[in-house]
Amino acid sequence: MYKSLKEILTSAFWFLAGIIILAGIWQIMSLSFSPLILPSPRETLGAMFDLFSSPDARQNFYVSAGRALAALMAVTIMGLGMGVVAGLYPWLEALMKPVKDILLAIPPVALTILVIFLFGSGSLQTVGIAGALALPLVYGSTVSAVRTVDRELLEMTEIFNVPRKVRLWDVYLPAVVFSSLPSVLLAAGLTVRLTVMAEVIVGVTVGIGHALSMSRVYLATQEIFAWMLILLAVVLMIEGGLLYIVKKYLLRWQA
Amino acid sequence: MGTFTGSLNKYLYLGGVIVVLLGWEIVSLTVAAEALPRPREVWNGLMLLHTNGKLWQHLPISLYRTLMGFGLGAALGFIAGALAGFSKPLYCLLKPLTGALLSFPAVAVVMVGMVWFGMGSTLAVVITALFTFPLVYRSTVEGVRLMDARLLEMAAVFRLSKWALWWNIYLPALATALLAGFAFAAGTAFRKTVMAELLGSHDGVGYAMAMTRFNLETAELFAWVMVCLFVVAGIELLAVRPAHKYLRLWNLPDEKRRGALKNV
């Protein structure tokens, strides 16, 4: 179903109107509160540019980005690996389900404190927390991807006696990797948020979570707002932009 | 690849639980008790929370906040979602708000909330409502959109009265969306409440967990984590499962659906 240009333009118009209304409400409300409570949009943008030019803030950003990326890589490798194995052997999936259920059900903060108790606090711990909580997402979608691998293709490999190894590498893997890609991107947005959460609660000495905690202590509300906008931009870029591109171009053949 | 029956899956699940418990027991034997309490000690910790009254002091507070925040967020989400489902401009208008709410890291919002509301119930309820809202909103919009266009067309052909239209087509579709969205959002609501409490409250499960960290009460922390898991499992059993059972009644194949319409 293709949208007409007119439809796209009207959608974009109302979307922009939504942003302008939000910014307007924010601006009007900020007039009646002190900047300590609610900084105005302009003050927030100013704080954002201050953050961009501050080496400390840039370091915080890069460290957090590194942690989130490390978590994402671990999640991708483990999620795909475990998902393929569990997809091929349903009894293994059933056996692993309790762990998956626990990771899905546990409040992230509870897991964070648990990890602090068991392993102390530090950079690796934040990566582990973000990774563990995002893992069920990639794992789950990989399992269902394996289950839905083209039946006809599989039958053909059986008829032609294709070796198991070839079947795994040339039939399962491409199908699974491609259909798991959206979940990996969703996991990317998730690891960003989880990394910041873990940083705040673990109490690391560098990172966006640390910067947020400091801003709160010093009542630098405009900095909290600025970080929120930056994080929003990052997550939207991953979840909105990349996911859209992947779904539209890479996964075209699926539709 | 064999097909697995439901009962066998249940046994395997149980097997998985036993493997986790056994692994836990074995690891806990090799490290110090303060580092990793044994499963039995966690059970004792749970009993301790019961006897020293902490469980009954903090859990009701958290459940109350979850319920309030969830109720507020779900009500707003449902109303906004029902309206936006019918009106494309409104949907586009609300998209920046709901999109932002879905993308914000909760801790950052909690920090702003702490500045605005201080520590306490208001903060936890508002945070919970803020993160329940977009979830219920989204599933309600989807529910309205999913209302079978053909079903509506047929209703127009048969000149269903407004009342019959609402009762037989809109409401079931909305109820479907409502149940699916509510059930999923309820677990999330509890997790957000615990987060808000941990950072900005002087009572509740989240606060109690933060306290175990400072007092180094490992067994009690594990017991609290168990309590959290029980609560989410309880929501799952009391709300999500029955909801999905009910959903299956409505998610009939097209033929049956059309057949069902004949009885309208």
Any overview of this molecule?
Chain A is mainly alpha-helical and 255 residues long. Chain A has two domains: 1-32; 36-254, MetI-like fold, CATH 1.10.3720.10. Chain A is built from ten helices and no strands. Chain A has helices spanning 5-31, 41-53, 55-88, 90-105, 108-119, 123-147, 151-159, 164-202, 208-217, 221-250. In chain A, helix 3 packs across helix 9 and helix 5 packs across helix 6. Chain B is globular, with a radius of gyration of 23 Å. The model of chain B is unreliable at 252-264 (pLDDT under 50). The chains are: A mainly alpha (255), B mainly alpha (264).
Structural class of chain B: mainly alpha
The CATH architecture of the largest domain in chain A can be named as: Orthogonal Bundle
> How many distinct domains of chain B?
1
Kindly provide the name of the CATH class of chain B.
Mainly Alpha
Please identify the oligomeric state: heterodimer
Q: What is the CATH domain class of the largest domain in chain A?
A: Mainly Alpha
Give the overall form of chain A.
Answer: globular
State the share of residues found in helices of chain A, binned by percent.
Answer: over 70%
CATH superfamily of the largest domain in chain A: MetI-like
Q: How confident is the prediction overall: mean pLDDT of chain A?
A: 87
- Helix/strand-derived category of chain A reads mainly alpha
**CATH homology group of chain B:** MetI-like
Helix/strand order of chain A, N-terminal first: HHHHHHHHHH
- Give the overall shape of chain B, derived from the CA principal axes: globular
Distance between the termini of chain A: 11 Å
Strand content of chain B: under 5%
Task: Report, as a whole number of angstroms, the end-to-end distance of chain B.
Answer: 44 Å
Topology-level CATH name of the largest domain in chain A: MetI-like fold
Q: Biggest interface and which pair forms it?
A: A-B, 61 and 60 residues
Largest sheet of chain B: none
Radius of gyration of chain A: 22 Å
